[in-house]
Amino acid sequence: MGDQEEQQPTLEERSVLDLLQKINKLHAEISKLQSLSPSEKVNGLFTELVTTCIPPSTIDTTKLTKADNSMRSDLINLCGKAEELLERHYSTLLSEKENPLDHLNLFPYYSNYLKLSQLEHTILTTRFPHTAHSAALKVAFIGSGPLPLSSVVLAKHHMQSSVIHNYDVDPLANSLAMRLTSSDGDLSQRMVFHTCNVMDVTSQLKDYDVVFLATLVGMGKDEKVLIIEHLANYMAPLAVLMVRSATGARGFLYPVVDPNDLQDHGFELISAFHPTDEVINSVLIGRKKLSEKQEVCCHSQVIGNTDEVINSVFNGRKKLSEKQEVCCHSQVIGNTDEVINSVLMGKKLSEKQEVCCHSQVIGNTDEVINSVFNGRKKLPEKQEVCCHSQVIGNGSANIYGEV
């Protein structure tokens, strides 16, 4: 019997091979360009590349041949450089207008930013309901660039009381971004720009409730993992990390972030969303994990029964005197149930209801803590207690509806 006929590729495999062939052809043409600055030819090639990569595809960028993987890495770098030059061009163009932010629709991909920011904000407020009611979230955007459309859209349409801190390593990018936003009386007060490498940002990171990580910050997998690990080391426990990524053939346009890279480096993966329309970027949502000593203060699911814990902490009192302030995170004075509900809902307290982990507590602070924790050195999951002297940073900024 003769040799078996070579097995023919399936329809799906043929589709992937055809796609790779077309992407390789476009990469070759783009590589020959003398400049990546906006021009009819440059714009045409990158538009064709985007159109090629956007449709849903079964291609797995982790299983490429060595040659295709090398091509992909180079293509992502070329896309990043072209995107930066395109943003510089439009940031300069818009800044020359009397009211620059009234003309953002001149940027060819502005509608994508509107949709992506809407998507991110919807995911954020759905997964963390308290963020929808917070008067002013503390937000950082890492990799804001010369045309900080994401920050602008978030600030103008979704986070209208928040100050957004924008980080970029390029001083020219920040200079152009500040020029663009300086003409807007509101945004000029709520958009702060920092010129530095994110790996040099340490203690400041603990101040933010939400951190956005732009797609092009950390081009290779190893670099991206180092950045995620750095953020995990310095962000506040329970703070949210929104990571932009890509999937399928879109991974030839932007770096792909493996969800495991969040889970293995200090974050709990809350959700992952992969658009199938013209919005290119996927969104991964992570939450900073708690260390053994950072079990959450003020949670409805505590050791045993909530009422039992409240009664033990408050010593059975329904109303506390001024000198009977209790170490149970955020205040006391008033009705116990109202206080606890306010704390658990993340509501702002009045001046007369302030006193979390105060030195003047019922009895001695250590005794109260010991009685509540009942000698436990570590709490199992879902048994976090509302009465700890070492709370998580600001507390009120870190009390999330989900734990």
TrEMBL record:
<keyword id="KW-0949">S-adenosyl-L-methionine</keyword>
<dbReference type="Pfam" id="PF03059">
    <property type="entry name" value="NAS"/>
</dbReference>
<dbReference type="InterPro" id="IPR029063">
    <property type="entry name" value="SAM-dependent_MTases_sf"/>
</dbReference>
<dbReference type="GO" id="GO:0030410">
    <property type="term" value="F:nicotianamine synthase activity"/>
</dbReference>
<dbReference type="InterPro" id="IPR004298">
    <property type="entry name" value="Nicotian_synth"/>
</dbReference>
<comment type="similarity">
    <text>Belongs to the nicotianamine synthase (NAS)-like family.</text>
</comment>
<protein>
    <recommendedName>
        <fullName>Nicotianamine synthase</fullName>
        <ecNumber>2.5.1.43</ecNumber>
    </recommendedName>
</protein>
<dbReference type="GO" id="GO:0030418">
    <property type="term" value="P:nicotianamine biosynthetic process"/>
</dbReference>
<comment type="function">
    <text>Synthesizes nicotianamine, a polyamine which serves as a sensor for the physiological iron status within the plant, and/or might be involved in the transport of iron.</text>
</comment>
<keyword id="KW-0808">Transferase</keyword>
